[in-house]
Amino acid sequence: MYGWNGVFLQVNLSKNKAVAETYNASLALNFLGGRGFAIKILWDKLKPGTDPLSPDNKLIFAAGPLTGFGVPNSGKLVVAAKSPLTGGYGDGNIGTYAAVQMRKAGFDAVIIEGKAEVPVVLRIKDKVAEFVDAKDFWGLNSFETEAQLHNLYGRSAGIVSIGPAGEHLVKFATVVSQEGRAGGRPGMGAVMGSKNLKAVVFEGSGDLSAADPKDMKALGTDGYREVLTKPNYPFWKRQGTMSTIEWSQENSALPTCNFSESVFDKADKLGGFAMEKIKVANRGCPQCNMTCGNVVKDSEKKDAELDYENVVMLGSNIGVGNLKQAAALNRMADELGLDTISLGNVIGFAIETSQRKRILEKYHWGKYRELKMLVEDIAYRRGFGDILAEGVQAAAAKIGHGAADWAMHVKGLEISAYDCHAAPAMALAYATSSIGAHHKDAWVIGWEIQFGRSSYSDEKVEKVIDFQRLRGGVFESLVLCRFPLVELGFELEWYLKFLRAATGTELSWPALNYIADRILSLIRAFWIREYGKNWTSEMDMPPLRWFKEPLTQGPLKGAKLDSEKFSAMLQNYYKKRGWDQRGIPKKATLTKLGMSTVAKELGKYVELS
Length: 609
Description:
By secondary structure, the protein is of the alpha+beta class. It folds into 3 domains: 7-203, Aldehyde Ferredoxin Oxidoreductase,  A, domain 1 (4-Layer Sandwich), CATH 3.60.9; 239-408, Aldehyde Ferredoxin Oxidoreductase Protein, subunit A, domain 2 (Orthogonal Bundle); 445-489 and 508-602, Aldehyde Ferredoxin Oxidoreductase Protein, subunit A, domain 3, CATH 1.10.599. The protein has 26 helices and 17 strands. The strands form 5 sheets. The protein has a 6-stranded mixed beta sheet.
């Protein structure tokens, strides 16, 4: 087998045991890697109804067939498990040297189950796994943990760790690497913490096997050179994703004060040009020459790495109009191991709930010192922070008194940083994302704003599906960053060439889209198996606020989603996917995708059409 290593590492923390297992080439060809491997492993090996925070849950680190090769933006890793935040499939990708080192150690995935008796660090050096006592690391933040582990194992080691939020089982705790790279929004850090696993250290000395090593090297060199020639490259290097703040403000899509509005009166103080004035460095993932991490000095005079999502969610969405303060809150989140998107949501929810006098606690828009304390309260589950640590859906249910009306989530995962009062296609993308409300599977709002945002058209449904196949299916399974393609116009044909040189397999885009449909339908089947007869199409509805409360400010004042038109749009989406009116894949669809055994298993939990 070329490209893939053909080996998984099975780790049981309860038994201090690690076993390397080979897998069949058909698995690689049918599911590619990354997200594809993760969902196939969870479907096959996780007992339905498993408590996500029990030893039985499986924490998976999975790479793709291009991970670690010298091609643009190939230094990424998927971390997945059953989500403690949503109860469904959860994952995220993270740019980290751990991805490269895991592959050089000989593994395409590491599957971790059980729970260590005492906190441990799992060290994987080539083919050997070691369980290291982590009592001196437990309680440290993620930056401190990684620094100390680098002191022990060298700068070349790839390290992923959790902070106090993961240790305290905050439902949206993340896995962190390289002082600002984070992944696993739906609580992958909490799953890691529940296993008493503080960190994983990867050290590999092997070579990756390509079908055509000479061509692989030449393609990589040419690909990197091509990235540098793209017209938008110089501006990208200056601002990265931060320019999206001005774009969202201009197009009335900027989440403001818990998504109640879509423009912010201090947006110019948060955006890319404001960031450039205080920027001190760029950071990026391994194998990347279009580094997107913008490093600034925050209000505490510390280095903080910024991008669009974290600045918006810890800026305009909670009323903070000072970039250095938003940067400081972001750095805190990374140190503590909190997802910045969900954190900005639960804080915005808390402030609004306080303002509406549904709780006794007093929180205010934009009050930095007050909000800084709240971030720590959430990470350590202190006071009202303990309620917010459960996520906005659970917090709203506990508070009651109509709080669900302003709880911004889909299927329990908090909305990322695009307001959709006037963006039906993006709302559909959130509603049907594989992990809950997340933008990366189908960032369709840019296309929607360009071609007309008021309609609920057939074309929009098809565009969402096309984006999900490409981004949520193929790129999440290869595992590659989509920025060269999306931001610079790096041509899709490059990826077919990379795959051919790495694996020796000729794959067309129709073939890759077919694999993507298989992966995304299996993820949907996993959700439905977990929810059983409780699953309805209501699971795929965006937050009530976008339907009930029109915008009161900005150029789109008065805009809101139409519930009847959106419901019809959702049913059209289901029809095109080959799913029934509940959003459940039909028997014929699963069979067509080569998953008749999945249909048989799923039929034990719900009636299939």
